[in-house]
Design goal:
Largest sheet: 5 strands, parallel
Bound molecules: D-malate
Shape: globular
Number of helices: 11
Helix content: 40-55%
Distance between the termini: 11 Å
């Protein structure tokens, strides 16, 4: 398996442009990581019975999409880490309980995470990764030949927690499929080393990251703990290529 990692969104954008030009994007399986907090939140929402998450770029787009859906929808998201005015929920996994989200379609806009998801539309398959669902994602990508991991980062800068999440997935793949030869790019190596250096201190890594410190300042310490949990959800959110909705996938390996 060949694995590459885009360490932040600008790198992802360049890689996608190159792949699209060479018509390679449509062959790629892509896993997006935004550990604090978009992909952790999406995993939590779908694990708690949400019907689907619809990623949108702006609050305005969110409101239009909601009108088109009608029915059982919730508007969710943040700007600067805080719930958007007029929205039902922010981007705090604590809010996405079964009581709140079950059966609902969540229309979500976040600063970096939902943007990253929209960038990679056109890939063969797009999955959401977080510490919460590492084993589930690992099982699903067994047999994939070319895997791209996209770290959402923070406004064009590298985020330690996303790089560590990417590295954790690589480590899981390495450990689970020992007979598989892994070909890693330098960025993928870097992600792996980052994870290996913090394997037993994931909460500390999240707490000490730039966005972790910012979230703590806003009073979201509990989110940091939630997002640092490993393998608590056996669900893989997958983008449905026809509707653009993110839905929970019934686990079976891609090949
Ligand atoms: C993002 O998409 O930028 C993040 O998820 C932001 C956050 O949740 O604070």
């Amino acid at each position: 398996m060949e694995i590459d990692v885009a360490l932040e969104l600008n790198a992802a954008r360049k890689a996608i442009r190159r792949m699209s030009a060479r018509k390679l994007l449509a062959e790629r399986v892509v896993v997006v990581f935004d550990v604090l907090r978009a992909t952790s939140c999406i995993v939590t929402a779908l694990a708690n019975g949400s019907r689907a998450v619809v990623p949108v770029l702006t609050p305005q787009e969110g409101k239009c999409v909601r009108q088109a859906y009608g029915g059982e929808t919730l508007l969710c998201g943040e700007r600067r880490g805080i719930r958007i005015r007029g929205f039902d929920l922010s981007n705090s996994p604590q809010e996405f309980t079964r009581e709140v989200v079950q059966g609902k379609t969540l229309i979500m806009t976040t600063t970096n995470g939902t943007r990253a998801i929209r960038y990679v539309l056109g890939a063969r398959c797009i999955l959401m990764g977080a510490f919460l669902n590492l084993s589930a994602v690992c099982r699903m990508v067994s047999g994939v030949r070319r895997l791209s991991i996209v770290c959402a980062g923070t406004e064009g800068a590298v985020s330690l927690e996303d790089v560590a999440g990417a590295g954790a997935l690589i480590k899981y793949i390495q450990t689970s499929y020992r007979s598989e030869r892994l070909i890693l790019t330098d960025a993928a190596h870097l992600a792996l080393i980052t994870f290996e250096n913090h394997e037993h201190q994931i909460v500390d890594l999240l707490r000490n990251s730039t966005h972790g410190r910012y979230l703590a300042k806003l009073g979201f310490e509990a989110d940091i703990n939630d997002c640092a949990q490993v393998d608590t959800a056996d669900v893989v959110p997958v983008v449905d290529e026809t509707t653009g909705e993110i839905r929970p996938y019934v686990l079976q390996p891609l090949s």
